[in-house]
């Protein structure tokens, strides 16, 4: 594990290593500046929330992290190394998985197949072995199926494993999407609004799963969420964005009492 | 009553992942194999072989090939006829250049050549999608047919511009050329179809097949979990074209014997293959069989009914044939837009619960 030691101010409770660091990221679309000069880090093992009003650039930031957008300025450091510009599928092989704001499941496939597809980066058998379905290819398939079954158990979706995901209700689809991301055994898991459009009960379930993933698998999580109650409860540290700029960074308590953050959310004018 | 999972317990993931998880389905599958390999050859006549069985087997191979590309990987292709022509002309060139080579290897090599050509014409799919890709593959169709018409090297400078399959045999039985008998031809096509269908089933349920379906259903999400779109799409083009090329080679060597490219592999063949997989069911191996059977058998059945049974004039029967087949296509698509395979699946689900409604 080649993880660089943390150089910034060490927090009191968690002196963990930095897994990912964004340095002065600026992202422009023509004349529109989506992200302006943002720096922040994500420490190994923490739950890091990114919050902000609509259009603040949160999803753009996730897209920078997993390679859909390439920032014009700034550097992305992952596991102690500066990352070269990469395609999203290469970044997936480095161990970054994500879920989407609007569910992006493979609609024509069953729950099981969706999560099995999440194992893509973990499977090695060449295509001609898959074609005859014998030897290593079959053993690999069975071994990965066993792993996927663990995730299915963990997320409590045993009953729907062979159901096409298009037929599932919204809350379960979100859960399957989380399962697909977990199947890759990511080092960093990005969740884009995992609780959007859920009722209170579903939100509680999802919060529990996120905390359990963090606890049991030790997965580092970066999430975007609008429900302040949830964010303040489950995250270790919070980045606040507004109009593409960072206006706050710290523990939930620090962020809550930051006057700039209060302004951005409540729109109060200081005279 | 015996169509149930109940009592048929699976104790390993290997058993649970098999193609026919229900015992009755497995027995039916073995029964169909028995009929195909033993039953039909015993009663096969020259007419049923040439008019029904051999075209059905060859079109099933082509339909599986196109289904891999369009049904599983979501890349619409209208170049099927052109790729079949590549398989046919590759077979002709190989047969004339290497007369000693066994016909089985000729057919497989022709598939390999077609796979390479298919990959080349698949390159635009990395930039263009949907209807635009369909138009790009249409260009492949016209270009390939033009190429085989205009470059005499492909038909060995023959005066007629046609290519003719010389006689080749397997185990002492001729399968191509005018002397070939119905049964050897039928069995030759059946063995190839059986092997290719089995390979296609394995590929589509494994890692590669899942990467195709991921690209089809949501290409952004596929990329985020590590699927390289370039590799997924080009592998689908290559394997699909291999199947179509083998189909084209058999179409020329075993079925037609002599071929004029514009007539045998024109744009209507591309549409025919596309109709087969849409009617049969996109993304289903069984659907490819069902679609090929529908499009090959239906005209023959209608013709037999109208001309032989009702003794209508042949010309009128031919017009009615077109109208009825067209109407049936519309009817099936209205009843079940996902094709005969979906109809079959619904029937099986109902049967599993029978006699209870839920």
TrEMBL record, chain A:
Domain of life of the organism encoding this protein: Bacteria
DNA-binding listed as a keyword: no
Xref: SMART domains: AAA
PROSITE patterns: ABC_TRANSPORTER_2
GO CC terms, sorted: plasma membrane
InterPro entries in alphabetical order: AAA+_ATPase (IPR003593), ABC_AA/LPS_Transport (IPR051120), ABC_transporter-like_ATP-bd (IPR003439), BCA_ABC_TP_C (IPR032823), P-loop_NTPase (IPR027417)
Presence of keyword ATP-binding: yes
One GO molecular-function entry: ATP hydrolysis activity
ABC transporter domain segment(s): 20-268
Alphabetized UniProt keyword annotations: ATP-binding, Nucleotide-binding, Transport
Name recorded for this polypeptide: ATP-binding cassette domain-containing protein
Lineage: Bacteria, Pseudomonadati, Pseudomonadota, Alphaproteobacteria, Rhodobacterales
UniProtKB/TrEMBL annotation, chain B:
Any one annotated GO CC term: plasma membrane
GO molecular function, one term: branched-chain amino acid transmembrane transporter activity
Membrane topology listed for this record: Multi-pass membrane protein
Name of protein: Branched-chain amino acid ABC transporter permease
Cellular compartment(s): Cell membrane
Main location: membrane
Keywords: Cell membrane, Membrane, Transmembrane, Transmembrane helix
PANTHER family associated with the record: ABC TRANSPORTER PERMEASE PROTEIN, HIGH-AFFINITY BRANCHED-CHAIN AMINO ACID TRANSPORT SYSTEM PERMEASE
Keyword Transmembrane helix tagged: yes
Membrane-crossing segments per the record: 27-44, 50-69, 101-123, 130-148, 183-200, 234-258, 270-302, 314-335
Source species, domain of life: Bacteria
């Amino acid at each position: 594990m080649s993880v660089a030691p943390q150089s910034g101010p060490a927090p009191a409770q968690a002196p963990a290593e930095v897994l990912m660091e964004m340095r002065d990221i600026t992202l422009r679309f023509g004349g529109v500046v989506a992200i302006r000069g943002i720096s922040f880090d994500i420490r190994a093992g923490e739950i890091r929330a990114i919050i902000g009003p609509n259009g603040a650039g949160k999803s753009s930031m996730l897209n920078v992290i997993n390679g859909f957008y390439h920032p014009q300025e700034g550097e992305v450091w992952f596991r102690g190394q500066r990352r070269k510009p990469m395609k999203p599928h290469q970044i997936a092989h480095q161990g970054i998985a994500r879920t989407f704001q609007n569910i992006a499941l493979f609609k024509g496939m069953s729950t099981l197949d969706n999560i099995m597809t999440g194992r893509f980066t973990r499977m090695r058998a060449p295509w001609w072995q898959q074609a005859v379905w014998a030897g290593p290819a079959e053993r690999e398939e069975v071994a990965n199926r066993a792993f996927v079954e663990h995730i299915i158990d963990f997320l409590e979706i045993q009953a729907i494993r062979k159901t096409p995901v298009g037929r599932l209700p919204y809350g379960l689809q979100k859960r399957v999407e989380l399962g697909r991301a977990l199947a890759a055994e990511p080092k960093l898991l990005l969740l884009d609004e995992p609780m959007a459009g859920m009722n209170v009960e579903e939100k509680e379930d999802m919060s529990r799963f996120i905390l359990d993933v963090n606890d049991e698998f030790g997965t580092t999580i970066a999430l975007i969420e609008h429900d302040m109650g949830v964010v303040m409860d489950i995250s270790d540290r919070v980045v606040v964005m507004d109009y593409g700029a960072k206006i706050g960074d710290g523990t939930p308590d620090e962020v809550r009492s930051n006057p700039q953050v209060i302004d951005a959310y409540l729109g109060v004018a200081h005279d | 009553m015996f169509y149930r999972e109940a009592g048929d317990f699976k104790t390993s993931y290997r058993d649970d992942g098999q193609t026919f998880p229900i015992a009755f389905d497995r027995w039916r599958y073995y029964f169909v194999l028995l009929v195909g390999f033993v039953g039909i050859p015993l009663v096969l006549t020259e007419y049923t072989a040439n008019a029904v069985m051999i075209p059905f087997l060859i079109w099933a191979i082509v339909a599986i090939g196109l289904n891999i590309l369009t049904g599983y990987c979501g890349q619409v292709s209208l170049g099927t006829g052109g790729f079949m022509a590549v398989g046919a002309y590759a077979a002709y060139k190989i047969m004339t250049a290497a007369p000693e080579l066994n016909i089985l290897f000729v057919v497989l090599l022709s598939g390999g050549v077609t796979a390479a050509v298919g990959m080349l014409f698949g390159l635009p799919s990395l930039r263009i999608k949907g209807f635009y890709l369909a138009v790009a593959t249409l260009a492949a169709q016209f270009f390939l047919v033009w190429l085989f018409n205009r470059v005499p090297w492909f038909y060995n400078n023959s005066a007629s511009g046609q290519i003719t399959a010389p006689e080749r045999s397997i185990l002492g039985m001729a399968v191509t050329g005018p002397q070939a008998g119905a049964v050897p031809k039928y069995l030759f096509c059946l063995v190839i179809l059986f092997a290719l269908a089995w390979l296609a089933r394995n590929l589509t349920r494994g890692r590669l097949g899942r990467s195709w379906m991921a690209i089809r259903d949501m290409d952004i999400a596929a990329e985020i979990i590590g699927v390289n779109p370039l590799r997924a799409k080009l592998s689908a083009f290559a394997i699909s074209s291999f199947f179509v090329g083998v189909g084209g080679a058999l179409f020329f060597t075993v079925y037609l014997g002599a071929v004029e490219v514009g007539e045998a592999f024109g744009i209507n063949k591309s549409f025919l293959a596309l109709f087969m997989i849409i009617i049969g069911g996109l993304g289903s191996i069984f659907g490819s069989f069902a679609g090929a059977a529908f499009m090959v058998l239906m005209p023959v059945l209608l013709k037999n009914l109208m001309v032989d049974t009702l003794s209508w004039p042949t010309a009128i029967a031919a017009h009615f044939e077109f109208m009825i087949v067209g109407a049936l296509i519309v009817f099936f698509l209205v009843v079940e837009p996902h094709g005969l395979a979906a109809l079959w699946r619904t029937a099986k689900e109902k049967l599993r619960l029978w006699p209870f409604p839920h």
